[in-house]
Write a structure and sequence with these properties.
By secondary structure, this protein is of the alpha+beta class. The longest helix has 21 residues.
Amino acid sequence: MRVVKNINNNVSLCLDKQGREVIAFGKGIGFIKAPYEIPLDKVQRTFYDINENYLTVIAAIDEEILEISNKIINYAIEKTNNQYDFRTIFTLADHIQFALQREKNHIHIQLPLLYEVQSLYPIEMEIGILSIEMIKKNLNITLPKEEAASIALHLVNYEMDTVTSTYQNKKSLIENCTEIIEEIMNIKINKSSFNYSRFITHMHYLLDRSSKDKNMSTENKRMFQSLRNEYPKTYKCALKIKVALNVSLNDEELLYLILHINRLCAREDCYQ
């Protein structure tokens, strides 16, 4: 296998013997300047058919977080017998990085589905708890138990049957929300991008909570007021999405929605 580009110290873009592009994970494989031949026993995991948009995102994720996410998914495969695809590792790593940023900024969000997740998905919740323990051990940062449930939901979301009528209904609603954002923000969202995939994940969780008449609760109402004033167009988007979904969203839910819309629209791939 030939390394053609190093993404970080442990992740590289390679070509296999057939000349196909593949993302390779392996401890320290990115230290050597490309191009070079890498022994297969140095490669821990490979992923084919990765959209180029993911490469920039992978490079932006802290290496330690990416490695933690990789270990979590490896453990999840052992526990659930599901073969999670490459997107799960990257979306989970991105979620963890965002959670750590929130913790650093003292943004604490309570997940109202915590007890439902514990009851309905005990295996995934066990993986989530192990995940926050792993984060504490490796990064010396303690995340709340709600984050364990969020990680569990990442796994559950992958496991859901994507052909169910419920999923199709959600898909239609999310597409409508996307059109609202594009119209109000005057942008064109790249729907094959990692950032859009992350937005979709958040919307799935929001719809799950609203279907159970659950809302997030936070201690950041002052931040909501600040963001509402600082980003009036984003706030307008959030309100119009609330109407389109025909759901009840409190200020905390709107705060989180504003954050996700801003993350989606602050990236270059929104303007393609």
